[in-house]
Amino acid sequence: MRHKDEFGLLKRVSTGDPDAFRILYEHYSPSVYSFIRKYLRSSELSDDICQNVFIKIWEQREQMSSVLDFSAWVFTIAKRQSLDFLKRAATEQSAMNIILQSYPSDNDRLDSAYQLEEYMNFIEKVLLRMPPQTQHVFNLCRQQSKSYEEAASELGVTRNAIKKHMVRSMKILKEAAENELGISFTLLLILLSSQL
């Protein structure tokens, strides 16, 4: 994209023009996704972080008219978000290891099964608060382990629509885990995986 064209788009984005934002997104998201994938080595996580990068850009759109090099700016945000995610995951994994090490070695299987059931019930309750289509997309992608492409094909929608539903569901689950359980969603996932 030529600098002059990009500068014009950034000015339009700064005024809240969704069409200009879509053009920037379509131009940059494939390379931002590839960049993030080098850090995270996971397609699904890279999709989620890539979406978060562009959500952050949209939330800060008023600043766009003063950005001189959008390419450098977007990749800086992508790198920061990727490294923040890895740092959180490492910290939470360390905390989880400490918690698991402090469990008695003869930990009662009934307690673990009960705790797992409680976490699963919590997730199910939070899912019920979501719009039906978002619930269905979450079920396909997370509970049935379908790719975004497979879910899009099954529902007759675009891959981007699936990504939007997943970003929405993860945001709702993250907020619920933090506000209602007092833990991060990543830690909740670690707790669940340690008991499956």
From TrEMBL:
Biological processes, Gene Ontology terms: DNA-templated transcription initiation
RNA polymerase sigma factor 70 region 4 type domain sequence ranges: 123-172
GO molecular function terms noted in the UniProt entry: DNA binding; sigma factor activity
Gene3D superfamilies: 1.10.1740.10, Winged helix-like DNA-binding domain superfamily/Winged helix DNA-binding domain
Matches recorded under Pfam families: Sigma70_r2, Sigma70_r4_2
Record key words, sorted: Sigma factor, Transcription, Transcription regulation
InterPro entries recorded: RNA_pol_sigma-70-like, RNA_pol_sigma-70_dom, RNA_pol_sigma70_r2, RNA_pol_sigma70_r4_t2, RNA_pol_sigma_r2, RNA_pol_sigma_r3/r4-like, WH-like_DNA-bd_sf
RNA polymerase sigma-70 region domain residues: 24-90
Xref: PANTHER family: RNA POLYMERASE ECF-TYPE SIGMA FACTO, RNA POLYMERASE SIGMA-70 FACTOR ECF SUBFAMILY
Family: Belongs to the sigma-70 factor family. ECF subfamily.
Protein name: Sigma-70 family RNA polymerase sigma factor
